[in-house]
Each structure stands twice: as structure tokens, then as C-alpha cells.
Amino acid sequence: MTTKRKRQPGCPFLLRDERELPPEATRWERFRRNLLCPPGVKLGRVCTFLLALPLFWLAGYGLTGSEMLLDGNLFKLYIVFFACLLGGWVMEIIRLPGLLGMLLVGILLGNLERQTGWMEHPLQPEWSGKIRGIALVVILIRAGLGLNPEQLRRLSLMVTRLAFVPCTIEAIAVACFSYFILELPWTWGFMLGFAFAAVSPAIVIPCMLRIQEEGYGVDKGIPTLLLAASSMDDVLAISAFVVFLGVTFSQGSIIKKIFMPFAEIIVGLLYGIILGVIFWFVPNHKDSFAVTEIRSIMLLIGGIASYFGSMFIEMHSNGALGVLSLAFVSSIGWRRQGYQDDNPVSLNFNYLWLIFQPLLFGRMSWEEVHFIRIAFKREDMGEIESGTLHNEKRRGEERESVLGTRKKSIVTGPS
User: d(Cα 303, Cα 324) in Å, to the nearest integer?
Assistant: First the structure.
């Protein structure tokens, strides 16, 4: 007795056959198969991207109205996000880092904005600052969750040396060059030195986490070593920068300005340790109601409160340290409850970083595009000039007139 073949709903000729293609299949057969539903993996990503473009704009316009028009802040974020996402994807296809594509797209958007005036008003500083802050919180939480307590205890002395020695030597070298060549005061030179010496956590931490996921150097603790050292390096650079900034523009007690960052570090550690221990027990790990999601949300809120709260009370050194220690202490208790290096909370923050990475690097390169000025005029096409606008306007003049008086000295500090 023959069984009747089940009829497929819709248009059967558009549906992909469940059977795999033979190895000798032609390119046309493979291409035709990828066009059927469901599409192939790469084509599916392209379709998802093209479908998300109008849906995001329609959703944003329905919620905010004018903010999604040409001069709206949300529209600028929309352009930066999708353009940098596309640029990073293209770079990964040609086996280059996706970060490079995001930076190049941001530079291109910044030059288009300044040369053509397609956006009359830049993104409001408070929007840009909040985005950078949240992105830093996300990356520091990922670093704290990725630290291995046992390896960190074993490598504690090496972490301290790697964090403090290179940063201090680099800051001293830059300060000496600034004093003898640029004729800046010593305090300004050390501010410039610690601004240069700070490690970029948004670049180092994702690379180390990727290496850790692939298993390279895990037995020797190399990812943990670099994650901890880079985070401590940033804390040292920020604290030292704040110390010299306070000494330079001090209107009160110099002793208070010098020792205040150390008090801020203690406050940040206490915040992270106390709140992290609370997160061991709240929510209860045996609760069946979305424990992982609640932990992720609470950790993100606690990190944002630490970072932006420190800015509000003007204790700038404890914000990043509070976020890092909060994530690390929380992960210690969660490991005892069964979490491993690839715990689901870390996975949630990996997804969150995919959103903030193009916003961070694209927006950063867009705003700072005046440091790499690309001329579009016909007579100097292809000319790329590096330097600040201060030096560009005075190019060709003597060094004394470029620097001006010490009151007009320029230093680039951490954002």
C-alpha cells in the first residue's frame, strides 16, 4: 500500500529540499539552493541586515518622531550603528579586524558631515558621553567575568608588575619629552604621559576574551594576566591623571588632592565587593524564573550606577574599579554555584557588546576625525595631514608661536 505524500504549505518550489547536495554539485546548483527558503547562512545575514534597516527606522520614528529625521540624534546613532556594522562585516570577509572597518566608516562619515554639511548639527555631547560610558561599563563587566580567581591569585605579583611598570615608565618618558621639547610644565607633561600610557580596554579585553574562548594560553593564565593587568593599568592612569590635574589647578589643599584618588580607589573596591557579595544570594540561584537574565540586568545596572555615580559625586577614579571589582566578585560566587568561564551571564554581555561596539568606535572616529584631516579639494586630493587643529592652523610658523604661552598649552586627556 502506497502512502500519500504530504503536501507542503505555501509555494513548494521556493522551499529548500532537506536533502544535502552531493559533493559533485555545480556552483549554479549551490547558488540556487542558497536562494531558496530558508536561505543560506551568509545570505540569511544579508537579508536580516536589509530587513532590520527599515524596521529600526520605522520603530524609532514611531517612538520619537523628529529624532529619527535627518538632524535627530537618534537618526545619527542609527546611521553610525548600521554603517559601522556593515563596515566591520566587510573587513571580516577579507580577513581583517572588524574594528578597522568600524573606525574607517566613522572617519568617512565624519568627513562627509564636515565637507558636505549633510548633518548640520553634531550629536549632543551628553548623548555621546553616555554611550561611551555604557560601552566602557559593558567591556569592564566582561573583563571582570572573564578573570579566573585561581590563576589571578597565582599571578598576582606578575599582574602588578605588568600593570604598573610599563605605564609608569611610559608616562615618565612622555613627561620628559614634553618638558624638554615642548616646554610644558612638569605637571602638564605627566598629565599628557598618563593619558598616553592608558591601555584601551575596548581593544585589549575583547581580544583576550576571544583568545580565552579558543583555549590559547588558558593553562598558563595568559588571558587572565592581560585582562587584569590592562584593567589595573587604566585605574592607575586615571588616578595619576586626576592627581596631576588636581595639583595643576588646585585651589585648596595639595595634600588632599594627592591622597583623594587613593580614597576613591578604596571606595570603588568596597562598592564592588559589597554589592558583588549581595549578588551571590540575590536572586536565589535555585529560582527558576530567569535567574541568568535578572543577574545580567542587575550587574549592568550596578555597573552603570558605579561609573556614572562616580562622575556625579566627582570621584572619577573609583567608577571603573567599582565596575571591574563588582563583576569579578560576583563571578566568584557564581562559579561556586556551578558557573564556568563560559557562563550565560558572560554570553549576555557578549551580545550586548555587539550593539555597543559599532556605536563606540564609529562615534569616536566620527567625532575625532579632525585629528586625521582628509582633504577633498582637487588641488590637494589624496593629501592626509595628521595633527590637531591647533597645530594645523599654525603650520609653517616657528615653534614658539605654535605653542604660544603656557596658558594656551593643549593636553589630550582620557574621555
Answer: 8
